[in-house]
Amino acid sequence: MKKKALLTAMAILFCILPLVAGCSLFSQEKGSEKKVVLSTNNEQPGHQTGSTSNTLPVSPPAPDKNAQPQAEPEPEPDHNNSAGPPEAPLDKNNGEKTPEEAEQPPQAPPSPGSNNKNIKTVYLTFDDGPNSHFTEKVLGILDKEQVKASFMVIGTNVLKNSELIKQMVAQGHTVANHTYSHDYQYIYGSPENFMADLEKNREILKSLTGKDTLIFRAPGGPARLTKPYWDKLQEKGYKSISWNITGGDSDPAGVTPEQVYNNVASGLDKVEKAHLTPIVLLHDGSQLSSLEAKPGTATYYYIQSRNSVVTALPDIIHLFKEKGYTFVTVDENTPNAW
Ligand SMILES: [Zn+2]
């Protein structure tokens, strides 16, 4: 019986001891748990050391993920340089504004091309040529007046008048890309079409002049180009040239030489008041199969307007000369028209 009592007592002890020990262990675990909890609580505000693996992976990816889509258009901040990289990608999302802004920085230091601030410069630009009749006359006047101009040429016309392109280069003028076809329906059908047409003319001009140019003017003006177009143009490094003065010589009703001159003169007044560098748009025009046209037809007025440009050109050049302008040609530093 005593043995049984002893055994029972021992059995009770064996049962109690582990429980007591278990409690202490449990309390230690609790303690350690508390420490863990405390330690994580303490680390969270710090974010410096300790259990950084729990905290850092959570927070950094967030800013990283935000930054990456903004960083993807890296060419944008690169173009803007000091424009503030964090803001530039946001600007890019606004679409058409981006390329304009990308062009603006060169405008900020108002020393376009090789000119000083104090030198007034003007860009004479002739679109849609070359053609076998008017372009040569324009070149003759420019040579006589000893001024340089820029020709925004169409590929199909270039192929028909390649000798005129060589003459332009020989006389020190600049030849720039005005697409191969100038076919609005095709080139504005998609950014891919536009780029293919532009690249086609680029290759033709390169083979003729030996110079690869990325300077272009969009037919109808840059306003027709939406963001997908600008994205592709920027990808290739193209530089858009617009205008801020026009002779109005693409008026389908035709223009007289006086009208062309007056349009340029009044345009110059506005541009000077706005403190802009004048970029004048005139047309030497597309290749024509004949210079004879029935009065009243579109071709008739087209020819009349081309003649008017040729007639008005010396006076237009004199206007700028008298106002102290130097004639320069388009390049990658040509400022924004507006
Ligand atoms: Zn054009």
Which SSEs are present, and which pair or pack?
Elements: H1 2-46, H2 52-55, H3 61-71, H4 75-80, H5 87-92, H6 97-107, E1 120-127, H7 134-145, E2 150-153, H8 155-160, H9 162-170, E3 174-177, H10 184-187, H11 191-209, E4 215-216, H12 227-236, E5 239-240, E6 245-246, H13 257-273, E7 279-283, H14 298-322, E8 325-328
Parallel strand pairs: 1-2, 1-7, 1-8, 2-3, 4-5, 6-7
Helix pairs in contact: 7-14, 11-12, 13-14
The protein binds zinc ion.
Report the order of strands and helices.
Answer: HHHHHHEHEHHEHHEHEEHEHE
Number of strands: 8
Mean pLDDT: 76
Name of the level-1 CATH class of one domain: Alpha Beta
User: What is the radius of gyration?
Assistant: 36 Å
Ions, cofactors and other bound molecules: zinc ion
Characterize the overall form.
globular
The CATH homologous superfamily of one domain is called Glycoside hydrolase/deacetylase
What percent of residues are in strands?
A: 5-15%
Q: Give the biggest sheet.
A: 6 strands, parallel
Structural class of the helix and strand makeup? alpha/beta
- Oligomer designation: single chain
Distance between the termini: 114 Å
CATH topology of one domain: TIM Barrel
* Helical fraction: 40-55%
InterPro entries: Glyco_hydro/deAcase_b/a-brl, NODB_dom, Polysacc_deacetylase_ArnD
Protein name: Peptidoglycan N-acetylglucosamine deacetylase
Organism: Desulfocucumis palustris
GO molecular function, one term: hydrolase activity, acting on carbon-nitrogen (but not peptide) bonds
